[in-house]
Fold this sequence. Notes:
Helix content: 25-40%
Distance between the termini: 22 Å
Largest sheet: 9 strands, antiparallel
Strand content: 25-35%
Oligomer: single chain
Amino acid sequence: MLLHIPQVLTTQEVAEFRRRLDAADWTDGRETVGHQGAKVKRNEQLSDTSPLKAELGNAVLAALRRSPLFFAAALPRKILPPRFNRYAGGGEYGFHIDGGVMSFNDGDQLRSDVSCTLFLNDPTEYEGGRLIISDTYGEHAVVHAAGDVIIYPSRSLHRVEPDTRGVRLASFFWIQSLIRDDRQRQMLFELDSSIQKLTMEGADEAALLQLTCIYHNLLRLWSEI
């Protein structure tokens, strides 16, 4: 499931992120990938040991907690602490697939089910730099406003086009979902969305109760805790 989640960060929060990141010390992005990824990756990142990365990452997690749409779609069990990257001067990241299992600094591990990108500047500020996601239906070029999030299955091949003007800033992170299978996760999301819409439209309460029971029983059947 490829889903756009608008306005996860407010305009004021984006401005503060930009102020802090414009003065940050950036390192070679190849430090956080394996041999194959290093061959196609040309960007900069905040170091995993950077206090600013930890501070802004916590702010991203707090913003996500305010988003019912994010939780309904991702059904997160664990979220890897958000990272931050910067593309400029032709920087790019060729086609790759995200690692299946990732490690926290404390040694805990996470299975990557859902990949997330949080855009931190508007598309008018740069050229190129689009996120390209490849799936059964072809390639999807993704670019959104500052403060918006895109989520997609971590099993997808994807790349970032060369940045040819300006600077592209983003946060990125991975989620281990309660629901491993993307098809099941999408069905639950669609069912939940339908329940919310029918509730707002004043649908029959007995029918809503039945649908809600189906949702939670499927969640109980499919979830991994």
